[in-house]
Design goal:
The structure is a homodimer. Chain A is an alpha/beta fold. Chain A is built from 17 helices and 19 strands. A 6-stranded mixed barrel of chain A has the order 1-6-3-5-4-7.
Amino acid sequence: MLELKHLPVSSFNENIAYIHRDCPVYKIDNIKTMTRIEIHGGAAPVYAFLQIVDSSKIIRPDELGLNTEAFRQIGLPEGSRVSLTLTPPAPSLASVRRKIAGNILSPKEYEDIVADISARRYSNMDIASFLVAAGSFITPNELLSLTEALRGDRIIDWGSEEIVADHHCLGEIPGNKADLIVTAIVAAYGLPMPKTVSRSLSGCTGAADTMEILAGTDLDVRSLKKQVLEKRGAIVNPEGLDIAAADKIISAVEQQNGLATLERSIASVLASKMAAGITHLLIDIPVGPRARVRSTQEAMRLRKLIEYVGDMMEINVDVVITDGSEPIGFGLGAALEARDVMKVLKNKEDAPDDLKEKSLFLAGRILEFDPKLRGGQGYVVARELLKSGKALDAMEQIIKSQGKVKEQVRLGHLTRDVVADVDGTVKKIDNAFMTRLCVLCGGGQYPGAGVDLFKKTGDQVTAGDILYRIYSCNQNDFAFAGTVLESGKSGFEIGK
Amino acid sequence: MLELKHLPVSSFNENIAYIHRDCPVYKIDNIKTMTRIEIHGGAAPVYAFLQIVDSSKIIRPDELGLNTEAFRQIGLPEGSRVSLTLTPPAPSLASVRRKIAGNILSPKEYEDIVADISARRYSNMDIASFLVAAGSFITPNELLSLTEALRGDRIIDWGSEEIVADHHCLGEIPGNKADLIVTAIVAAYGLPMPKTVSRSLSGCTGAADTMEILAGTDLDVRSLKKQVLEKRGAIVNPEGLDIAAADKIISAVEQQNGLATLERSIASVLASKMAAGITHLLIDIPVGPRARVRSTQEAMRLRKLIEYVGDMMEINVDVVITDGSEPIGFGLGAALEARDVMKVLKNKEDAPDDLKEKSLFLAGRILEFDPKLRGGQGYVVARELLKSGKALDAMEQIIKSQGKVKEQVRLGHLTRDVVADVDGTVKKIDNAFMTRLCVLCGGGQYPGAGVDLFKKTGDQVTAGDILYRIYSCNQNDFAFAGTVLESGKSGFEIGK
């Protein structure tokens, strides 16, 4: 038996166990590679990957150290007596190897893979291997199996509600935070919408980051249910909800290496929305030459896939294909996006029109999930709810209920203006370039960082006009953003 | 600036940097995921992945901790002043993503990927992603590019030697340690053979593990050259040779998750042998229903690939396809294999005949690289060198020169006999089963662990006869091996 010790190290996603090289319980001499262990003593065995420590100041020979992730999972106080056994690689890794070799996996194999990922028996390396293997070739039935496995059995129950709606945009478009406005409109109408929003993945800002400019997003299932049943809407980060655990682990790996394929995203979205108890889901696929989905043909293929999986799992899905050719709204980055969202909800004159129109279109489609609304009425009702201020009221109630943020986030103190070098009209804005710029200037990490667009496609510009302003919160990020601009590119195409 | 501290933690392969959450130099609040940093202060920047520490007992806020791997690489004493900057993901990861999407990469892209891996800018997760992506689809020209990149520019120079020979078996067959006998015969003939041998990868024992039962295998380039030029042979672990650095890093990842594809193995073998200055290479592809290569057709495909890459890179390759249907020799596991090898070299009556014949065949093919030998003479000369004891002399000189091991390894103290349950003839022995058994009983980690075969295919058995004996060095491994046997399977097929 060894004495449990918390080694307060955050390793992001992996459970790590530390043992001393002279550990009397397990002879370490022969460990030449990453070794998997099983720790006994808690309610259930905890799996971890072993690292060897050569100093008793960190771990004594009679101690077993766990990093923060593993210590939290084992749920025992320091000093508890635990034992360890070596454990063979997770059995389902054989299925991952079969997938790598180009085979089609069975529903049971996906179930086992997902169960082993939930139990943290996969290293990040194993998860990445699975993602790449399944990403390069997956059949519709495999995608169904993966989605079912990721959803799991823990599903939020909304009682007698017949429609519980949500919306997801597949393939982030910079600046697009229609989600928040849509939720406010749908809630104002009275349909329950427990909108789950993620943090920034590959893009510059997740809707969770933007919402956190306005209110807290960490609700547990109990408070989420209470709020949605009373206020009809919520905008929450699903991290705190005890659902779709494996999906969260996989997403964290995708976040670390930018490997998310569209197929995996479909499985992830459908699984997590279904685990949240959603009955009606609107999926928006923006298409553009520099968007995640680049052709209508590809978008149609994805739509069929989503419809197939959705139908088989008995969730109502409506898939819309929209224009994703340029950023939506003016601001990219949490604080700037939150500003745009509130301008639309407050019917301000300088509110970005494209964000408003997109929000109304999407909200209209969701309202039409209600059988009482006639075809085409959704948009009209949505516009009325926005114009009358009822959507703003709904958002204010959501903010109040989730806990208004006390301190206003300030924009980054390091700024740089990028100006037009010729006269003309803005012909194109490169989504991928703007996303990259926004990530590098700190948009993914600092809420006050981002890019504020002064011009959009179709606008007239004169040489010297500001195209956009970059905000960074530290010198490092500011310098990264600078390197992208040194190439002379601005991401804007200006023509006659 | 931060103060450098060595955190003596072995993390296997990855550079890890530890900073305190209150580090004044870099604000940590916003780090939600694995972050890549660049550490300045040493001869060259060192890349590492950041982990966050919440206790000043481990790392003070003004310190930067490096794990053993990174500390070794930076080459500075503790207390040195270093600075850190965040670094964007390695630029070549864009190529990995292109490969995942099914594209063909250019030679320059492979070069950049390999350079970034050498510089430790890839996490294990990134390397695994690359392996899976390149493993599922790679063209012959891409394989050539990968091999050239892995070989690198640091090539051991053998001066005026016209032939420098080596041999590699693609797809481990349990028990097969012909490599050691072949080296002794070729050295006895007088052709220089700096045999590089690896540690156990997916199999039960690498030839390096077996050789270490007899002698040290860690030579630097200087001692390797001296020994081969004088004694004509060496059997060394390339870990200590400063060549093909990226290949070693990639192999370590493959070792951790068993992802090695045959294509990657070809690139790895050709690259590392060429970096070792080999001019003539014999590659053996054993084929069997439970071997790594399962059909002659597949072996032929690999042969063409090897010949193509070998020809383009101007190394003489001879590829032979051999019988890989059952284990070779009696012992599986380092100590038992070393016993078999020495029995063959000593012409003992109870030496395993299949190991002897395979060694003579391979050695004969290598000897025929010598233009002075007529076709077919190689085998005869090899047999004579073995029979006369000259090969044994050569091996003893190699052992003496590399440093004879003082203490004899004892076989594991935990043993279990597996017996025949019927009378009959051994029809088949399942390679994959025996490998798995040998891995689980500790063969990959403990030199004294392994499986000793008492019967081979074609032998008569009576119910109750011992088929094989398992040796384990600890209770854990012994129990793992037991679980495989509980299914009632023995890996032997006995028929009439």
